[in-house]
Amino acid sequence: MLIFDGHNDLLLNLWLHHRDAPAQAFYQGIERGHLDFSRIRQGGMGGGLFAIFVPPQAYIAQTVPDRASEPYEPLTIMWQQLQILQLLADESGGRARLCRSVDEIAACRAAGVLAMVAHIEGADALDEEGEQLHAFWQAGVRSIGPFWNLPNRFGQGVSGTFPGSPDTGPGLTPAGEKLIEQAARLKMMVDVSHMNLQAFHDTARLFRGPLVASHSNAHALCPQPRNLTDDQLRAIRDSGGLVGINFGNAFLRADGRRDADTPLTEIVKHCDHLLAIMGSDHVAFGSDFDGITPPAALGDISGMPRLLAAFQEAGYDQTLTEKLAWGNWQRVLHLTGL
After folding, report:
1. CA 179, CA 304: separation in Å to the nearest integer?
2. For the domain that residue 147 is a member of, what is the CATH number?
3. I need a surface site. Which of 110, 210, 265, 337 has the fewest CB within 10 A?
4. CB neighbours (10 Å) of residue 39?
């Protein structure tokens, strides 16, 4: 069964650790992290959204000390990560493609080619006028999440300690409202996964397309501030959107721990909850691989057959599982206008 994954941080991993030869690392194998081409094939991943994400400067210095003295230029880092994604396509020998439409994704699926869609996670470096957003759209980006965890000129991302509410501060600024409108005109998908409660409601008011939380879970089961309340789930459902289930232990477990000894049934429980509120058309996968600590039983993308088996053991039939794995993302991308 082919899988379309709604969120991963492969580009960040390659930018941090394999910047000099990212395609070579991807196709020959990456020791750290959760994704490379071989494991993607083992796991049955046929496509996904690949995040362009600029981490805090302190994180770069801590993770790769040799790069601590480099200039910290977020906009440059974004373009570098998009270039890495393009290199993965250019040096794939026809095995991968940067997709700009659902028709291109469908063609990739038919040909057995990895369909890669570019997504911006955090708009901190973008200007208020929309020129840079338009430039990224022209270069192939088709999805944007305005926030990560930290405030920027567009508003505040959700932040806070466990357990906690997503109601952590004010919503979109005037510039943030303008950004949502700019994305809508470009027919870009808007991701609410890192929005606080007020920014979420502001976006729901402004954005006429389907709301998408690409890598979030149920707050009722795991009260992380970044997980979604039942009211938010209903709003996403009513917009025609979806939630991509995050595989991170800290977003799955009722105790919020990053403990890898987390059974795959915890993922199934979140899926059960989302399905009960949203219905079978509005739930999918958004692993957050390379950005989280997943259950040891899953390990990385190559473990996806084990997760699909867990859904089967829980009584999910083939039709429902195929919606979760592929169909629901394609429906929403089509509704967005991709």
Report:
1. 35
2. 3.20.20.140
3. 110
4. 20
pTM for the full predicted model: 0.97
Give the domain range for residue 43.
3-336
DSSP state of 244: E
CA dihedral 156→290→272→203, nearest 10 degrees, is 20
Write out pLDDT tens, residues 267-295. 999 999 999 999 999 999 999 999 999 99
| Nearest alpha-carbon partner for 42 in 301, 239, 288 | 301
The closest of 130, 125, 114, 115 to 147, measured between CA atoms, is: 125
Report d(CA 261, CA 62) in Å as an integer: 26
**pLDDT, tens only, 167-220:** 999 999 999 999 999 999 999 999 999 999 999 999 999 999 999 999 999 999
Paired strand residues for 47:
4, 115
Number of helices followed by number of strands (H, E) in the chain: 15, 9
| Close Cβ partners of 306 (under 8 Å, ≥ 6 residues apart) | 264, 297, 298
- Quote the CA–CA distance of 244 and 266 in Å, as a whole number: 15
